[in-house]
Amino acid sequence: MSACARCGAPVGPLGEALTKKLVNRGCERFYCLHCLAAQFGVSEELLREKARQFQSSGCALFEGMEIGDKDT
Protein backbone atom coordinates (compact mmCIF):
# COMPACT_ATOMS: atom_id res chain seq x y z
CA MET A 1 0.00 0.00 0.00
CA SER A 2 1.41 3.38 -0.97
CA ALA A 3 1.05 6.75 0.77
CA CYS A 4 -0.93 9.69 -0.62
CA ALA A 5 1.36 12.14 -2.39
CA ARG A 6 -0.62 15.03 -0.92
CA CYS A 7 -1.49 14.11 2.68
CA GLY A 8 0.47 10.93 3.43
CA ALA A 9 -2.61 8.78 4.17
CA PRO A 10 -2.56 5.15 3.03
CA VAL A 11 -3.71 4.64 -0.56
CA GLY A 12 -5.34 1.32 -1.39
CA PRO A 13 -6.00 -0.31 -4.75
CA LEU A 14 -9.06 1.87 -5.44
CA GLY A 15 -7.11 5.11 -4.91
CA GLU A 16 -4.29 3.83 -7.10
CA ALA A 17 -6.69 2.80 -9.88
CA LEU A 18 -8.61 6.09 -9.77
CA THR A 19 -5.38 8.09 -9.80
CA LYS A 20 -4.27 6.21 -12.91
CA LYS A 21 -7.66 6.59 -14.58
CA LEU A 22 -8.31 10.25 -13.74
CA VAL A 23 -4.82 11.78 -13.46
CA ASN A 24 -2.34 9.83 -15.57
CA ARG A 25 -2.13 6.16 -16.47
CA GLY A 26 1.64 6.25 -15.89
CA CYS A 27 1.43 7.77 -12.38
CA GLU A 28 3.84 6.49 -9.79
CA ARG A 29 2.59 8.86 -7.06
CA PHE A 30 -0.94 8.15 -5.90
CA TYR A 31 -3.69 10.05 -4.08
CA CYS A 32 -6.21 8.92 -1.47
CA LEU A 33 -9.92 9.25 -2.23
CA HIS A 34 -10.22 12.28 0.04
CA CYS A 35 -7.51 14.20 -1.84
CA LEU A 36 -8.76 13.08 -5.28
CA ALA A 37 -12.28 14.23 -4.37
CA ALA A 38 -10.96 17.59 -3.17
CA GLN A 39 -8.85 18.03 -6.31
CA PHE A 40 -11.83 17.40 -8.60
CA GLY A 41 -14.42 19.15 -6.40
CA VAL A 42 -16.61 16.05 -6.01
CA SER A 43 -17.58 13.69 -3.19
CA GLU A 44 -15.76 10.48 -2.35
CA GLU A 45 -19.03 8.63 -3.00
CA LEU A 46 -19.14 10.02 -6.55
CA LEU A 47 -15.61 8.71 -7.11
CA ARG A 48 -16.69 5.27 -5.88
CA GLU A 49 -19.72 5.41 -8.19
CA LYS A 50 -17.50 6.33 -11.15
CA ALA A 51 -15.14 3.47 -10.24
CA ARG A 52 -18.10 1.06 -10.35
CA GLN A 53 -19.02 2.45 -13.78
CA PHE A 54 -15.44 2.05 -15.03
CA GLN A 55 -15.44 -1.50 -13.68
CA SER A 56 -18.75 -2.43 -15.32
CA SER A 57 -17.53 -1.00 -18.63
CA GLY A 58 -14.56 -3.39 -18.49
CA CYS A 59 -11.70 -1.09 -17.45
CA ALA A 60 -8.78 -3.37 -16.54
CA LEU A 61 -7.66 -1.02 -13.74
CA PHE A 62 -10.73 -2.01 -11.70
CA GLU A 63 -10.91 -5.70 -12.69
CA GLY A 64 -11.75 -8.01 -9.79
CA MET A 65 -11.92 -5.13 -7.31
CA GLU A 66 -14.66 -4.98 -4.67
CA ILE A 67 -15.64 -1.35 -4.39
CA GLY A 68 -17.19 -0.67 -0.98
CA ASP A 69 -18.05 2.39 1.07
CA LYS A 70 -14.74 2.59 2.95
CA ASP A 71 -12.20 1.92 0.19
CA THR A 72 -9.14 4.09 0.00
Short key terms for the protein model shown above:
72 residues; mainly alpha; two-stranded antiparallel ribbon; 2 strands; 43% helix
Helices and strands in order:
Blueprint: E1 2-3, E2 10-11, H1 13-22, H2 33-40, H3 44-56
Antiparallel strand pairs: 1-2
| SSE series | EEHHH
Radius of gyration: 11 Å
SS-based class: mainly alpha
Mean pLDDT: 95
Number of helices: 3
**End-to-end distance:** 10 Å
- For the record, the count of structural domains works out to 1
Order of strands across the widest beta sheet? 1-2
Low-confidence stretches: none
Number of strands: 2
Strand content: 5-15%
| Main sheet overview | 2 strands, antiparallel
Helix residue percentage: 40-55%
Shape: globular
Question: What is shown here, in short?
Answer:
It is built from 3 helices and 2 strands; from the N terminus they run E-E-H-H-H. The chain is mainly alpha-helical and 72 residues long.
Please give a structural write-up.
The protein has 72 residues and is mainly alpha-helical. The chain has one domain (2-62). 43% of the residues lie in helices and 6% in strands. It has three helices and two strands; from the N terminus they run E-E-H-H-H. It has helices at residues 13-22, 33-40, 44-56; strands spanning 2-3, 10-11. A two-stranded antiparallel ribbon has the order 1-2. Strand 1 and strand 2 form a beta hairpin. The longest helix is centred in the last third of the chain and has 13 residues, at 44-56. The chain is globular and about 30 Å long. The N and C termini lie close together (10 Å). The model has no long low-confidence stretch (mean pLDDT 95).
